[in-house]
Amino acid sequence: MFTLAPLPYDYDALSPTLSATTLRLHHDKHHATYVKTLNNLLADKKESPRNLEDVIRSNADNGNAKLFNNAAQAWNHAFFWQSMSPTRHAPDGEISALIKSAFGDLESLREAFVEAGADHFGSGWVWLTTERGETLNVIATHDAKDTVPEASVTPLLVCDLWEHAYYLDYQNERKRYLEAWFDALSNWSFATSQLSAARSGGDSWRYPAPDSAARAA
Ligand code: FE
């Protein structure tokens, strides 16, 4: 059984950029439902995987689409909570140097990130990723899709583009949500730890494993 990864801050910690109502619904209803459905599907198949990443990898592409969607959405949301911080912390050190070489400056990265998210058709996610810590890319993925199955790609940040993520606070203004998200919530200390892991070949962020998560709960 996978447990619902907890929010790493209070429901109102990201207000006014994201309201407590949005966070409560998003975490306690949307995210919780993905985790519950994932556990039900695994129970039906009598499977008890060691970690969530394996479930995502083995069901991507030609695997079980329903299992993939719920596993990846469980993972993506937990990664999204980590991608936000109530405390501002500008990118510095090695990530700042990489932003400069890949995009010129932070403002240009912001433009690319907001544009990729605003232009994305339908539901999905906009990511800042690196390949082995050598490059930086902004990509958008559809629905539940993520970069977990791609061994050479490490995500640094993600922003949720599904309407449930912003509609109560921004209605149809996805671009304004993305701008506010990037300026006020993006967690550069988390992005830096992901980049360091990609460069050193160390462990990047993982979803809480079923056993340890159960003990923690
Ligand atoms: Fe969501």
Keywords:
217 residues; mainly alpha; minor pseudopilin epsh fold; three-stranded antiparallel β-sheet; 9 helices; 53% helix; disordered C terminus; binds fe (iii) ion
CATH topology: minor pseudopilin epsh fold
Compute the number of strand runs. 3
Report the mean per-residue pLDDT as an integer.
Answer: 95
The ordered H/E elements are: HHHHHEEEHHHH
CATH class: Alpha Beta
Number of domains: 1
CA-based gyration radius: 17 Å
Percentage of residues assigned to helices: 40-55%
Low-confidence stretches: 212-217
In which order are the strands of the major sheet placed? 2-1-3
Return the structural class.
Answer: mainly alpha
CATH architecture tag: 3-Layer(bab) Sandwich
Alpha carbon gap, first and last residue: 11 Å
The fourth-level CATH homologous superfamily is Iron/manganese superoxide dismutase, C-terminal domain
Globally, the shape reads globular
Number of helices: 9
- Largest beta-sheet details: 3 strands, antiparallel
Strand coverage percent: 5-15%
Enumerate the distinct ligands. Answer: fe (iii) ion
Notes on the protein architecture:
With 217 residues, the chain is mainly alpha-helical. It has one domain: minor pseudopilin epsh fold. It is built from nine helices and three strands; from the N terminus they run H-H-H-H-H-E-E-E-H-H-H-H. Strands 2-1-3 form a three-stranded antiparallel beta sheet. Helix 1 runs antiparallel to helix 3. The chain is globular, with a radius of gyration of 17 Å. Fe (iii) ion binds next to helix 1 and helix 6.
